[in-house]
Design brief:
The longest helix has 69 residues. The chain has 2 domains: 338 residues, Up-down Bundle (Outer membrane efflux proteins (OEP)), CATH 1.20.1600.10; 69 residues, Single Sheet (Outer membrane efflux proteins (OEP)), CATH 2.20.200. The protein has a 4-stranded antiparallel β-sheet with strand order 2-3-4-5, with no helix packed on it. It has 454 residues and is α+β, with helices and mostly antiparallel strands. Helix content is 64%, strand content 15%. A hairpin with a 3-residue loop joins strand 4 and strand 5.
């Protein structure tokens, strides 16, 4: 039998600990920028929305038109034929001098363009939050699978030990049954955790357009720094001033306000400057008459609306009602943004305390488990006590994993609430990520050990 040389053995061992090629949060965000349908829709909506500005501006500028016609007339009179060919060309210009609805629509165009830009900024920040949430959902699901499998392995060892102790008479069948029940439960939890991981990966696939590769995990201790400034009211004030959803709602309020002016202008006169030049040439064959005339005209055109069956008044009442609706929508949006900022701020501050508490809880539960195992060895603790202590340890680890991801997401959501979330925040989180190590082969079998029938 051949044996590995020392150098070959070292290379093999080094290969086992080589980090796997893995994507980080910035990679996932870049892929989402290119593939996410929701973000692509928002980008096209922005492109369409900003066209409202030049469309509104066009109503203030002159319109120029060119028209032409050629007409041939054939006339028979007795034995004589008369042919007449007429050519008419006309150039017209109209410049609005007073059209209040045009000015109001121009202001509407400005507000619509601002609304489109604000909604796109909101979509950009929402993409960051959704990408990070999907990323950490996968990591949390992976953590749950690993913790469940580790718990399953430990309980399996405890079950085997309970069987041996029962066979030698140092434990009762109750210990074996209890360990078997715990093993069956954790097996079902493993199946649920694996399924949940697949669902979370598929959710990320929807975002980036392909099944995700390995992801870099959060490594080591997080920098549990409080928000800066550490004052919730200041964050709320920033959200009121900068939140893109609130800015979009303010723009929508201005659109509704200008629509009232547009419809009120239906009662007002309009005044336009009009200028025309027309050229008319005629050619008549029969009497051989050829003539050409050119006509120029410049003037003011006044139009005074008198009555349209109540249509203008109805449209004005409709616009006024929509204006009041937009006002209430804006107030609701402001309150919602304030609540979002407060919740996110508290999520960061409470997350700091929760992570620290759970880190200590893991240490305490690890010590409790070791003490309980020692107590079982000397006969003052039972296997049920060990199983309970082990369960508490894994619960603390799971809760700590969840709290770490919640803390990171709360930081992102707080920045999003005040409209200051950027790619720099993703780059910062990337610094908190570690490398993925090749995992030890996991047992694929979920078959529980056979129960001791003694």
């Amino acid at each position: 039998m051949r044996t590995l040389k020392p150098l070959s053995l070292m290379l093999c061992l080094a290969g086992l600990s080589t980090p796997l090629a893995a994507a980080d949060l910035m990679d996932i965000y870049r892929q989402a920028q290119e593939q996410d349908a929701t973000f692509a829709s928002a980008r096209h909506a922005r492109d369409a929305g900003i066209e409202a500005l030049p469309q509104g501006r066009s109503l203030l500028l002159p319109t120029i038109g060119l028209s032409g016609a050629k007409t041939r007339t054939d006339t028979e009179r007795g034995e004589s034929d008369f042919n007449n060919t007429s050519r008419v060309w006309a150039l017209s210009l109209s410049q609005p001098l007073f059209r209040w609805q045009n000015w109001a629509q121009y202001k509407q165009g400005e507000s619509r363009a601002q609304q489109a830009e604000a909604l796109f900024v909101s979509a950009q920040q929402d993409l960051i939050v959704r990408a990070a949430q999907a990323y950490f959902d996968v990591l949390l699901a992976q953590d749950n699978v690993e913790l469940t499998r580790a718990q399953k392995t430990a309980i399996a060892e405890q079950l085997e030990q309970a069987k041996i102790n029962f066979e030698v008479g140092t434990a009762t069948i109750t210990d074996t049954h209890d360990a078997q029940a715990r093993y069956d439960l954790v097996t079902s939890q493993e199946i649920a955790a694996v399924n949940d991981l697949e669902v979370k990966r598929r959710a990320l696939e929807v975002l980036i357009g392909r099944y995700p590769d390995a992801l870099k995990p959060l490594a080591g201790k997080l920098p549990l720094d409080p928000p800066e400034p550490n004052d919730m009211d200041k964050w709320v004030d920033s959200a009121d001033a900068q939140n893109p959803q609130l800015l979009a709602q303010r723009a929508n309020y201005e659109v509704a306000k200008q629509q009232v002016e547009v419809n009120r202008a239906g009662h007002l006169p309009t005044l336009d400057l009009v200028a025309n030049r027309s050229k008319n040439s005629n050619a008549t064959f029969g009497t051989t008459s050829i003539g050409q005339t050119t006509t120029d005209s410049v003037g003011l055109q006044l139009n005074i609306p008198l009555f349209q069956g109540g249509y203008v008044s109805s449209k004005l009442r409709e616009a006024a009602a929509n204006y009041e609706k937009a006002k209430q929508d804006l107030e609701f949006a402001k309150r919602s943004v304030d609540l979002q900022a407060r919740q996110s701020y508290l999520g960061v501050t409470s997350g700091i305390a929760q992570v620290k508490a759970l880190e200590q809880s893991v240490v305490s539960n690890q010590s409790a488990l070791e003490s309980t195992q020692l107590g079982q060895e000397v006969g003052v603790r039972t296997s049920v006590d060990v199983l309970n202590a082990r369960q508490q340890l894994y619960t603390a680890k799971r809760d700590l994993s969840q709290a770490r991801y919640n803390f990171v997401m709360s930081r992102l959501k707080l920045k999003a609430a005040v409209g200051s979330l950027t790619e720099e925040d993703i780059a910062l989180i990337n610094q908190w990520l570690g490398e993925v190590q090749a995992p030890a082969p996991a047992a694929n079998s979920t078959e529980p050990p056979k129960q001791n029938k003694g």
